Amino acid sequence: MADRIALDVLKGKTVFPPPVWLMRQAGRYLPEYRETRRRAGGFLDLCYDPAFAVEVTLQPIRRFGFDAAILFSDILVVPHALGRDLRFEDGSGPLMTPIAAEQIERIDVSGFHERLAPVYETVRRLRSELPETTTLIGFCGAPWTVATYMIAGRGSPDQAAARLFGYRWPDAMRTLLALLADVSAAYLIRQIEAGADAVQIFDSWSGVLDGESFGCFCVEPVAAIVKQVRAAHPQVPVIAFPKGAGSRYVGFRKATGAAAIGLDWTVPLDQARIIQQEGVVQGNLDPQRLVAGGRALSDGVGAILRELGGGPLVFNLGHGITPETPIGNVEAMLDQIRRRPPR
Ligand code: CP3
Known about the structure:
With 343 residues, the protein is an alpha/beta fold.
């Protein structure tokens, strides 16, 4: 097999310049994405049609030659495959009917993999169409983050509804998170068997949890997923991204068993170095530096290369690329990463 440097780094190797990909690299900042999205109709039509999903996954690889491609889908296809309704309306993000505590016992997992068959087909086609050297990353949402959307029915700035639900109905919450962990592990295992080289667990909302809840709502379910994936495929690296975890980033790798840790942009680079001593890190440029460009961008990129380039690093943003990002800034960032030796 040809060298896949992003995969090598995820397994613990140090490579300089580091491999790079961007969260949400297939998205609205690309005119070709907007064009395909228009042809597909709705966002979910894009996710569930392998031809469209393959096309948009490949677009940023063709344009920028990123070292890794991330499957194009969404974290909310998992509750959708459990029979929950899901809509994406322009400008308002995802919308679902909020789940009630008493409905959780009755969630029906039959038909889960059948409903997700188009995703597995997308992964199969991607592995055969991607360049040999491009690492293919599959993903799922972490149980807590998926649960926040199932409970509130939409995004919110602080996930108050899901936090309240967890305090009022702790048993229902535990049941929901355990169920999501099991189906998500099975989902990742199917993606790996279809050709994914590595998988990432997005816990975008872990940062809103208090100390105790962080342990049982974030760490435990993520650890349960990692354990099941590793039991089935011990060679496949799992990247955990507990966005906003702050001081709780230290030790997260050990607590969950993840091979690599995704750092959000608020993690100071001296802290990031400590976390990197525990293993591979991925991140963590502020996406707004990429929007700004110029000195803001080159200073941010330079600092990450300088502080983290001496150890196992997958260069990435600290969260998804935003629609207003100028394409020229992405090119400038890649030139800087790929050409400049460490100072
Ligand atoms: O390129 C990639 O990174 C792969 C595709 C991907 C998408 N969503 C496509 C998408 C991935 C990995 C996700 C993960 C995801 N989805 C997360 C976790 C990561 C994060 O961003 O915190 C979450 C919380 C979701 C749920 C979700 N999907 C929200 C809140 C939204 C609306 C916000 C927005 O940007 O509009 C989406 C929609 C979505 N998912 C878009 C894309 C490209 C934009 C929809 C469009 O094209 O209209």
